[in-house]
Amino acid sequence: ATKEFGLERAMLKMQEEWEVIVFNTTTYRDTGIKILASVDEIQTTLDDQIIKTQTMRGSPFIKPFEKDIRVWEDKLVLTQEIIDEWLKVQSQWLYLEPIFSSPDIMSQMPEEGRLFQTVDKNWRDTMKFVTHDPKVLSATSMPGMLTKMKDSNELLDRIMKGLNDYLEKKKVPTRLCVDTTA
């Protein structure tokens, strides 16, 4: 019973840790839009706790709490997946936002512009949600968040492909200069 109690306390301690872990955000340029700042500590805590829960699940004394520890592990893994997708969206959004804030580009690339507006709206909504409640477990519990991030990443990939194709078409052929005097 002592070992079971120890496992239950360890699980509760992990859950309590998350009550004070928050996303740090910073304002992007002069847009007023928030972006995630460093998430290294959050990712380290996730990695550590996922390993702890997997180790605990292997204990013969976990039986009374097995369902609880599985639910907790699933929550941690989902949170990790969301953050991974979120950071990919942020990286591409940061690259593309200045490009697609240009009316000229929007008129030259209407399909990609429309897709970017969809991603941009999702991004802004997500960041508003996080700014309102920056606690990591609360912020990542936004309904459908993983799907929204994955969908945004798929759209961003399509936008990047369209942008690269556009730039390739616009490329001016350069002549190869050969020094024939040598």
Question: Can you describe this structure?
Answer:
The chain is mainly alpha-helical and 182 residues long. The protein is 70% helix and 4% strand. It is built from 7 helices and 2 strands; from the N terminus they run H-E-E-H-H-H-H-H-H. It has a two-stranded antiparallel ribbon with strand order 1-2. Helix 3 runs parallel beside helix 7 (145-170). The protein is elongated and about 70 Å long. The termini are far apart. The model has no long low-confidence stretch (mean pLDDT 92).
Q: Top keywords for this entry?
A:
182 residues; mainly alpha; 70% helix; 4% strand; two-stranded antiparallel sheet; 2 strands
Structural class: mainly alpha
Series of H and E elements: HEEHHHHHH
Q: Total number of helical segments? A: 7
Structure summary, number of beta strands: 2
Strand content: under 5%
Put the structure in a nutshell.
The chain has 182 residues and is mainly α. The chain is built from seven helices and two strands, in the order αββαααααα.
Describe the secondary-structure layout.
Blueprint: H1 2-17, E1 25-28, E2 33-36, H2 40-57, H3 66-100, H4 103-108, H5 110-132, H6 136-139, H7 145-170
Antiparallel strand pairs: 1-2
Helix pairs in contact: 2-3, 3-5, 3-7, 5-7
